[in-house]
Specification:
By secondary structure, this protein is an alpha/beta fold. It has helices at residues 17-30, 38-44, 49-56, 66-80, 91-100, 113-124, 147-156, 170-179, 193-198, 208-216, and strands at residues 4-7, 14-15, 86-87, 104-112, 130-134, 163-167, 183-186, 203-205. It has 10 helices and 8 strands. α1 (17-30) crosses α4 and α3 (49-56) crosses α4 (66-80). The mean pLDDT is 95.
Length: 218
């Protein structure tokens, strides 16, 4: 029986794509590099801000300005991440349903940790029991390594038999596999149904309310 639900953030709980795109383009423009489309950013996210910038900056980490662009992005995004971001329709009722039925709820994201905590406080205050972002400087590997998920499970006193992970990408599928827990994949995020299926998704839902029904039957 599932008692603990761990969510991805971007593309699962929150629509963040426009704010991410705007901050990337602000950073690229500052250094006179070409702008990116929202679809290009959609295809570049999922592995954290370092990999995102590596994918959009010309020559990636080999670019001598890479670190400056990365820091510009992080600062700009921190100041602008609430501009166009919002929870997906149905997410807040879902979290209320889970909470009222005594599920423990966590967020594990590859977004930098301070942004994860700030976003969860603004949009899900009182609904999330634990939130964790990227913290590799402290030796905690980011997804798809299971480290952050396992740290949440330890915090909750959870086991592989009573925990499920919910996400929108192949990284989330791999993370759940590495943590030895089931994964519910969602189609309203950054990856579509066919992509998720091709990347090993076993349980796929198309609306937030389906998550609660799925969990109750696991």
């Amino acid at each position: 029986m599932i008692k603990n639900v761990i969510f991805d953030l971007d593309g699962t709980l929150l629509y963040t794509l426009e704010d991410l795109t705007d901050s990337i383009n602000f950073s690229l423009k500052k250094y006179n590099y070409p702008q990116k489309t929202i679809d290009q950013i959609r295809n570049a996210v999922g592995n954290g801000v370092y990999k995102l910038c590596e994918r959009v900056v010309p020559e990636g980490k080999n670019n001598p300005l890479y670190n400056e662009i990365l820091e510009t992005f992080k600062q700009n995004y921190s100041n602008n991440m609430f501009n166009k971001t919002s929870p997906y329709e149905g997410i807040i009722p879902l979290l209320h349903d889970l909470k009222s039925n005594n599920y423990k709820i966590a967020v594990v994201s590859n977004k930098f940790d301070s942004a994860v905590r700030d976003l969860c406080t603004k949009y899900f205050n009182g609904l999330i029991d634990f939130a964790a972002g990227e913290n590799e400087q402290f030796g905690i590997k980011k997804k798809p390594a299971p480290d952050t998920v396992l740290s949440v499970m330890k915090e909750f006193g959870a086991t592989v038999d009573d925990t499920v992970y919910v996400g929108d990408s192949e990284v989330d599928i791999q993370t759940a596999q590495n943590a030895k827990i089931p994964c519910i994949s969602v189609t309203w995020g950054f990856k579509n149904y066919d992509f998720l299926l091709q990347n090993g998704a076993k349980i796929i839902v198309h609306a937030p309310y389906e998550i609660f029904d799925t969990i109750k039957n696991m």
